[in-house]
Each structure stands twice: as C-alpha cells, then as structure tokens.
Design goal:
The protein has 13 helices and 8 strands. By secondary structure, the protein is of the alpha/beta class. It is 43% helix and 17% strand.
C-alpha cells in the first residue's frame, strides 16, 4: 500500500489520504499489433464484469490511438496529468459509462509524467489512491506493439491479457510481445484471448500453438481465457458507439466475452491482487524516470 503523505502536507494543501480498504486487481490488456480487437475486448469485458457485480475502471493508456471513449460512448474532460492541479480531484477526471463503468483518460499525459518532479508524482499518486476504493477491477487498455511504454504497463500490472487473431501476422506479433515480456525480470504468466474465430477448433489450434511455443522456447506460461467468434454485430455496435454486450446481448460475440469474464474471475486469488493501483502506478512511474 502507498504510504500516507505526511511530509509537505501544508504546501500540498492535501490532507493525509486514507489507506484504501482493499487493493484493486489491475489487468493490462495488450496486443502484438493494432486492429485485432484489443480495445473492444477491454470495454466489453468491463461491461460484462460490471454486470456480474464488480466495480470496474478502465484507464485508456494507448498513447497513440486512445479510443476507449468512442467504444464506451463516454467522454472525459480531463486526463491523468490534470491531477497535478490543486483544484482537480479524482472525481473530476473520472467519466462514467454504461452500467456504472468508470473511465479515466491517460493518453499523452502518461508520457508527460516522466517530466514531473518526484514531489508532483507523489501528489498525483496520492489522489489516484482513492480509486482503490472505487473499483474492484482496473483494466489498463495499453497500446499495441513492442514499445517501451507497453512493456512498462505489462510489467507493472497484476495480470496481463494479450489479444490475437488466427492470422499468421497477428500470431507472430503476439509471440514477439511474449518474448519481450519473458525477458523482463519477475514476469508472470500471460492470459490469451483469440479473437475473430471463424472456423470450428480454430481458436483451440491457435492457443495450443502459442501455449506450447511460449513454454518451450520462452519458459513462459500462457493460459487461454477463451475465444471470440467473428460477428458482424460487433461492427454494428462500434458504429453505434455502444458496447456490443449491451446492444446485442444475445449475439455470439457477447456470449463469448461474458464467458471470458467468468473465466477471468474464476482464477482471481488474493495472491493475484498484490500491487493494486498504487503499486501499479509507482512501478510505471519508476520506469518513466
């Protein structure tokens, strides 16, 4: 847990923040390449988890193409960097989407954090610490590819979900992420989702190949959360700027995502939730420095 900010309290105009009652489970969602459905999974997974009774917060950490707000149908007035102001609090930067899912825009503000002093970073972390009491699960929608920022998010999270499709290029790219991740210190297992499955057993074949290859050559454990069938209803939902699990709840894609949410929750243990948002942010910030 984060330490209470006692020193410099008067100059910050902040009271001592209460320690959160629990630690949120921080899950980073990423992919080897763009266009494989990473953000759609993040948003609809958040909705499905909310429907199961969990409080969910999405942080859009895609520095290049932040578009969670479009898929979620929500807009944010501020981003994470605005918390440096004395008159801006967590409640001001959080937007609310369907089913009570909360949304925080990171965007370019995350990279700019690298230029802040340690004092200002502590101010931001202190305010964000309150999010621990607002969410049970925090989904970090990262960028795609092998950038340093993406790897930083993966290393700082409690869980890592990688999204791929059966296309050879997508499989090659997601394996490259696995390889880079496996070379980092203290990496944990990776959870896999195979999207846009069109043929019977196609998803099973993809996951079997990636699980076996990662274990043999990278010594990395990969477990599969499930597959998502190709469904035109997803395209219709995106055009309407409404999550598919709400606009087409009985569609194949919605059923697949709900099943993935159930599998994700079933493997939640006290050991998984070790860092919380405060630990995640401190680790990300340490990488930025």
């Amino acid at each position: 847990m984060l330490r209470k900010l006692v020193q410099n309290k008067q100059s910050l105009n902040l009271g001592v923040e209460k320690e959160p009652a629990h630690k949120s489970r921080v899950i980073a969602v990423s992919s080897g390449k763009g266009g494989v459905g990473k953000t759609n999974l993040s948003v609809n997974l958040a909705i499905a988890l909310s429907q199961m009774g969990y409080r969910v917060l999405i942080i859009d950490a895609d520095l290049g193409m932040a578009n969670v707000n479009i898929v979620l149908g929500a807009s944010a007035k501020y981003n994470l960097l605005n918390l440096i102001r004395d008159n801006v609090n967590v409640e001001d930067i959080l937007a609310e989407g369907p089913c009570g899912v909360k949304f925080l825009s990171g965007g370019s503000g995350i990279e700019e954090l690298a230029n802040l002093t340690a004092f200002d970073l502590e101010r931001i972390i202190s305010k964000l610490n309150l999010c621990e009491n607002l969410a049970d699960i925090i989904l970090i929608d990262t960028g795609a590819g092998l950038s340093k920022s993406v790897l930083n998010f993966l290393m700082a999270a409690d869980d890592v979900i990688l999204v791929t499709t059966p296309e050879p290029t997508a499989m090659t790219d997601v394996y490259a992420i696995m390889k880079a991740y496996s070379n980092q210190p203290d990496c944990s297992e990776v959870k896999l989702v195979v999207n846009r499955v069109t043929e019977p057993n196609e998803g099973i074949d993809v996951q079997a190949k990636l699980e076996k290859t990662a274990l043999r050559f990278l010594n990395l454990n990969v477990t599969t959360l499930g597959e998502i069938k190709e469904d035109r209803n997803l395209v219709r939902a995106v055009k309407a700027q409404k999550p598919v699990v709400l606009s087409y709840p009985n569609s194949d894609v919605a059923k697949c995502i709900k099943k993935i949410a159930s599998v994700l929750i079933s493997d939640d243990t006290d050991q998984v939730r070790t860092k919380g948002l405060g630990g995640f942010l401190k680790k990300v910030f340490s990488f930025l420095r």
